[in-house]
Amino acid sequence: MALHTQRAIAIGGSTGALGAARILLQDLPAHLGAPVFITLHVGSDGHNLLAQTLATPGHMPVRTAEHDEPVSNDVVYVAPKDFHLLVIDGTIKLGRGPRENLARPAIDPLFRSVGACYGSGAISVVLSGKLNDGAAGMADLKRCGGIAVIQNPTDAPAPDMPLGALAAADVDHRAPVSQLGSLLMQLLAQSPEPSPPVPDSVLLEIDIALGRPCLSSDIANLADPVPLSCPSCGGVLSQVRTGPLRFRCQVGHAFTAEILAQEQEGSLDEAMRVALRIVEERANLVDRLAGESQNAGRSHSAKDFARKAEELRQHADVLRRAALQDFKKTG
């Protein structure tokens, strides 16, 4: 059952967000009257030390979330490594569903589940970070009646995530991190408005993050196939019909357009480097064949091989110049 009469805060961020999250938590009272959920991109190779890093004596306890743990007010729950943090019917759920925006934990699943669980009582906060994980989840939380808050982009060391949220959703409030704590206290003091029904597409994407079976027919309920392939598994991508421009594959991997473009750019760069290496190796091999033919007195064959080697080196020069030009654009 949705907890639409209660408040909850969901926080997400990446680059530059750790310090902001610490300041924000220190500005909140120990008796907040609501739970706080946090997903920060720290990679899957850590040792779940994020909760310890965020904890401050005299403030709310901060702990790594555990599966099937009942949610309590005045506690900060932090997503563990390699699990999506979700809230279902007032209970913590840790999902091993597909990565979203190349991340697990990802911010979007947290925001969706808190929006579905708390409705208009949900408050989402996007802190500093690169690219735009959290933007689609914030838009879905808004569809559930929740409130959208961002760190002021000019205050963020990496403004991409707050700017992405601004582009994707009707953001209600923005503030520098030094004022976010007092802003959240003001919002918590307000009674939630009546909550709209949770969209079926939001519930489906929560199920995907939990790791429940995802069929092509399920994806067809929220997205339409497009001529793009998933960079994670090679499957067909479908464009999601609601929210910011984003895609899901048949396995369930999800990407915003910005993150997909960056991933494809990296794949293209790698493909160019592989192609350059193959062409250069082919030119060296043909050079050897030319030398062997010359030594054997097959001058006609030697000339053909030499001409082919020169053509291959010209192709290599084209690839090298293209790779250098691409480096100058991105560097």
Q: How does this model look, in words?
A:
The two termini are 50 Å apart. Helix 1 packs across helix 6 (177-188). Helices cover 44% and strands 18% of the residues. The model has no long low-confidence stretch (mean pLDDT 89). The longest helix has 39 residues, at 257-295. It is built from ten helices and 13 strands. The protein is an alpha/beta fold and 331 residues long. It folds into three domains: 8-188, Methylesterase CheB, C-terminal domain (Rossmann fold), CATH 3.40.50.180; 213-249, no CATH class; 260-330. The strands form three sheets. A seven-stranded parallel beta sheet has the order 3-4-2-1-7-8-9, with helices on both faces. A four-stranded antiparallel beta sheet has the order 10-11-12-13.
Core attributes:
single chain; 331 residues; alpha/beta; 3 domains; four-stranded antiparallel beta sheet
Summarize the structure.
With 331 residues, this protein is an alpha/beta fold. It is elongated, with a radius of gyration of 25 Å. Helix 1 packs across helix 6 and helix 3 runs parallel beside helix 4.
Uncertain ranges: none
What does the overall shape look like? elongated
Number of strands: 13
Strand content of the residues, in percent?
Answer: 15-25%
Structural class: alpha/beta
Sheet with the most strands, sense and barrel status: 7 strands, parallel
Predict the CATH topology of the largest domain: Rossmann fold
Task: Give the strand order, joined by hyphens, for the main sheet.
Answer: 3-4-2-1-7-8-9
Percent helix, as a range, is 40-55%
Number of domains: 3
How much is the radius of gyration in Å?
A: 25 Å
SS field, number of helical segments: 10
Q: Mean pLDDT across all residues, rounded?
A: 89
H/E element sequence: EHEHEEEEHEHEHEHHHEEEEHH
User: What is the CATH architecture assignment of the largest domain?
Assistant: 3-Layer(aba) Sandwich
* CA(first)-CA(last) distance: 50 Å
User: Tell me, what is the CATH class of the largest domain?
Assistant: Alpha Beta
**CATH homologous superfamily title of the largest domain:** Methylesterase CheB, C-terminal domain
